[in-house]
Amino acid sequence: MSGAGESKGNGAPNGNGNGNGNGAGQVLARYEIRLSGLGGQGILTMGKLLGQALALEHGYYVTHTQSYGPEARGGASRSDLVVSSAPISYPKTEYLDLLVALSQEAAASYYSYLKPRGTLLVDSELVRQSPTNVFLGLPFTRLAREKVGVVQATNVVALGAVAYLLPFARIEAMRKSLKAALPEKIRDANLKALNLGYQEAKKRLGQPITLPDPAGEGESNGTRMDLTDIMAED
Amino acid sequence: MAKRLPHVPDGVFLQMEDEIASMGAIIGASLAGRKAMSATSGPGFSLMQEQIGYAAMTETPLVLVNVMRGGASTGLPTSPGQGDVQQARWGTHGDHPIIVLSAADVPECVEMAATAFNFAEKYRTPVILLLDEITAHTREKISLPEPGDFEIVSRLTPTMPPEWYKPFEETMRGVPPMPPIGSGYRFHVTGLAHDAQGFPTSRPEEVRALTERQFRKIDRFFEDIQLVEHVETADAEVVVIAYGCVARSARLAVRQAREAGVRAGLLVLKTLYPFPRRHVEPLLRSCRLAVVPELNMGQLSREVKRVNEGYTTVRTINRIDGLIITPSQILKEIA
Predict the structure, then answer these.
(1) Which of B78, B134, B327 is nearest residue A5 as measured by Cβ atoms?
(2) ipTM, interface predicted TM-score of the complex
């Protein structure tokens, strides 16, 4: 649905797993990302950093919306990004291409919004029971605590992994966005966290995401996983 | 604004103790010759209502941004809603003219904020800019306008000698010139019904003349004030009439409907009041179905239904659970 809605200007070679470096400038139909977790995990900041990098460094159209409860900490928190080469009408997400979940609750509540071939990325220690077997996981919180020494950098470690996984994002752009957005006092720790997330993802998560070919037959845009008749697949 | 206004030449950011004081402060600033605005949400808008009436009666230009959220009272403080549409028009007591605008995305916020000030200055009236949580919290890329990209209108000031000046005199446009207080012109301001000199009166002919002029100054310029955007309405059989964040959902839904072969169109209302009848009515006459999606139980759809004198079917989509109306929800109704 979403792919059909926004302009279909594609035909650019997709990521093909050959890495981030040459993904830049790729023509992109509507790509929907949800970052989710608990209030206090820095979900909104993560969305802002990712959105800024994609909009200002890569030049994509990006909308970043947010949803959070009235609580300062502990409530459900999420950030939605829509990335496209064309102007974006509907700013929220309906069918996710990428879901990042930093809490069990977030993974359970949102995975059903994933497209059939969407990517689920979780904090593998906080999400003990993944709602699906097809997911990617890294212990973001532990990495931040043990390797960076600042547990508050969890969101930036996850951002590093996202930068690796998204075939149209470049790590240098994230770095630049991070430098521009964060105060100097916490800049070094965060740059370290970003690199750590990127390297860990490269080591353990396999190839970056392959974008669906919008011209292809296989992609059943607009079919939500919870509505898909399993018998009908393949 | 707290960060940026102090860097603008003559810019002042003032934190008041509450909404009532904020309204008083911007009315005072405006009477002193400055362009002033305040912003609020939820119950804060209700607190400001009394003095919106004062600004309307004293014909004080000002801009008030209200970011609508869900529910009455404290309601859903972090979720979108569009429940203040009728309140923006009729929230203050008494019969009064007012201009209510809306914006759907970040670039439009820039455009409509400038437009709101222009209307306020041109017509000497309070202008309400209605946003919603989604529009207000969305981050997206915009190109900042250069100076000169927008027409900037400022209020007329008197050119006659001070002793000839009558602050609420009838004029061609119905909008009397307005000197900054303290500039040598005698300028009396009161919320009581007043005569051309600005002093209280209860003489029926003077009261009627005042009220009629206040309405006429807006009514005669509907064409200038009623702003809309037509999206593929020229050959439409089905029209969606939307405003605010929901207009973005509708834009996608209409495009999807077109791809599915339905001749759908979208009318985005940027001016909510005075209600843009001149744009709505022809579409109601030419389309077989009009759909009005909004995040309330049916506030603007009342206006559409009022205009629709049996021309077509008006269907509403109402959502009040703190979530936005999705493109697929609209698509289901039109395709």
Answers:
(1) B327
(2) 0.82
